[in-house]
Design a protein that fits this description.
heterodimer; A: 274 residues; 10 helices; B: 268 residues
Chain lengths: 274, 268
């Protein structure tokens, strides 16, 4: 069982915040205060006991929409990172083993991918596949897989240079087995930190795409679309901009804190301290 | 009959500069051979070349014959079978030679399952068995520990146990006592001596320290700047060194011994 150091306040705060978002997202699958097509709230009504965060220009309950936004942020964040891990991680491991010209080839390819803006790549993919939540996930996942590939390549190379890999080879261990029992366990703490950070990046990328109208199609609006819609009403109904914006910021902060907490957890130097 | 014969071994970097050249080495079955030389003389490179584990920038040429098969030309798959079960190496620094994220027991279980076919419930007993064999005082605790949680001496014994778990015919010990303090080093040497004797293994013992070498091997080659400068029975090499470098080595070792104030203390 993983024991969390009580001094690791970042991990604790990050986990609690993320757990809250997760809870809201799960809850939104079964229940929201109002249905998304329910426009009975009246146009831009102020917060009340019935509509805690007020309503939007079409009279839809803002809280329900923010709850759905949490679900989309988490769905996109984690799925895109999963795609990034699968594609980027695999390419990174292969690139880590590559030597000489092959290594140069991989490095140049990954450099080009990294230099290519994620948002532009995402827009290209969405333009080709059409706007859908899955297109967004795929586009962001492919975009961040270059980061995973680059980091994995470096991590694999650094582990491969260790004496215990030579020791494993001396005892006749094959490369696939060395990868499984030595390389993956030695790179995964760093990998986990990067993954947590990338969840935030993916969440932000999704919000940007939605803001540009390329994200999840209505009525499942993400925080990005909520922000975009709130643009015209920001003075008359400031909450409609503040709440989704704050949620997005808190979501990114929560995964960043979690990433920092994970790093602290695995850092042997900080663990030795009393 | 020689179990391992090395002829005209040359190790060079891509630019064509030779790091090791003209190394000949004969290891009869059950014999103990020492490789003596200072840092950078090519001792470890020779050991790595024998197991074909040189880095990608290094190339080896010549002939390395193990029981009739030419190691420099066999396939990597074949070489994988030879490494460990036929030729094993124990390295100088056991802390870096053990995976920091794996318990000692887990690390030992891999060669045990691969070479001795031990699986499942028998593994725990087998792990403690090999730890007992290398005379570790509390095998249960050590098996549960990570490498950084045990002492330097224990770590080197674990590294030795890992190599022995492969049941090799030739064991290459590369400066295995260098990172240990003198009393622990003496214990490890004694253990190695016992294990080599009881298992009838052939041993290549690499060291820069002539007195360490004299405790464990019978014959030795002296390497300097990548070439073998002298060879023969170690006693002979110490008694009447021929090469200027060997003369210097022996003289320094004797001077060191003399500088110990043993006699003065006795006079007290």
């Amino acid at each position: 069982m993983i024991r969390i150091n009580p001094r690791n306040s970042k991990m604790l705060t990050g986990s609690i915040l993320l757990a809250l978002f997760l809870l809201v997202a799960l809850l939104s699958l079964r229940w929201t205060p109002f249905k998304l097509d329910d426009m009975s709230g009246g146009r831009l009504s102020s917060p009340s006991w019935q509509h805690l965060l007020g309503t939007d220009t079409l009279g839809r309950d803002q809280l329900s929409r923010v709850m759905i936004g949490a679900r989309i942020a988490i769905e996109v964040g984690f799925s895109a990172v999963l795609i990034g891990i699968l594609i980027g991680g695999s390419v990174g491991i292969i690139a880590g083993f590559a030597r000489g010209k092959w290594d140069d080839l991989f490095t140049s390819f990954l450099d080009t991918l990294i230099a290519f803006p994620t948002l532009l790549l995402a827009m290209l993919i969405i333009a080709a596949r059409g706007t859908s939540l899955f297109s967004g996930i795929l586009a962001i996942g492919l975009g961040i897989s270059s980061v995973f590939a680059r980091v994995t390549r470096l991590l694999v190379k650094s582990v491969l240079s260790k004496d215990f890999i030579t020791a494993a080879r001396v005892s006749g261990t094959t490369w696939p087995r060395i990868t499984l029992i030595h390389i993956i366990p030695n790179i995964w703490p760093t990998f986990l930190v990067i993954s947590a950070l990338q969840v935030g990046v993916a969440g932000l990328a999704e919000a940007s795409l939605s803001y540009l109208g390329l994200g999840a199609p209505p009525p499942n609006d993400s925080w990005g679309s909520l922000l975009q819609q709130a643009q015209n009403t920001v003075y008359s109904a400031p909450l409609s901009a503040i709440v989704p914006g704050l949620c997005l910021v808190l979501f990114v902060i929560s995964v960043n804190l979690l990433a920092d907490g994970i790093r602290f957890h695995f850092d042997q130097n900080s663990r030795v301290a009393p | 009959m020689n179990i391992l014969t090395v002829r005209d071994l040359r190790i060079s970097v891509e630019a064509g500069i030779d790091l090791v050249s003209k190394v000949d080495l004969d290891l009869p079955a059950g014999a103990r051979l020492g490789i003596l030389g200072e840092s950078g003389s090519g001792k470890s490179l020779t050991a790595l070349a024998i197991t074909r584990l040189l880095g990608p920038a290094l190339h080896s040429y010549g002939s390395i014959n193990f029981r009739g098969s030419e190691l420099l030309s066999v396939s990597e798959k074949e070489m994988c079978k030879i490494r460990g079960s036929k030729i094993a190496i124990v390295f100088q620094d056991p802390l870096s030679a053990l995976d920091p994220l794996m318990t000692v027991g887990n690390q030992l279980s891999h060669p045990l399952s691969r070479y001795q076919g031990i699986k499942g419930n028998g593994m725990k007993v087998a792990v403690e068995g090999v730890l007992n064999e290398v005379k570790i005082a509390n095998p249960k605790r050590v098996a549960r520990s990570y490498p950084h949680e045990i002492s330097g001496g224990e770590r080197q014994r674990v590294a030795l146990a890992m190599a022995l778990a492969c049941r090799p015919e030739v064991l290459i010990a590369d400066e295995i006592t260098t990172s240990l303090d003198v009393s622990i080093a003496a214990e490890v040497l004694e253990l190695l001596d016992l294990l080599v004797r009881t298992r009838n293994m052939s041993l290549i013992f690499i060291s820069h320290d002539i007195s360490t070498l004299s405790q464990i091997v019978d014959d030795a080659i002296v390497m300097h700047k990548g070439v073998v400068v002298e060879r023969g029975p170690l006693r002979e090499l110490i008694r009447s060194p021929q090469d200027p470098y060997t003369k210097k080595l022996v003289a320094s070792a004797i001077n060191l011994e003399k500088s110990l104030p043993v006699h003065g203390m006795r006079n007290f």
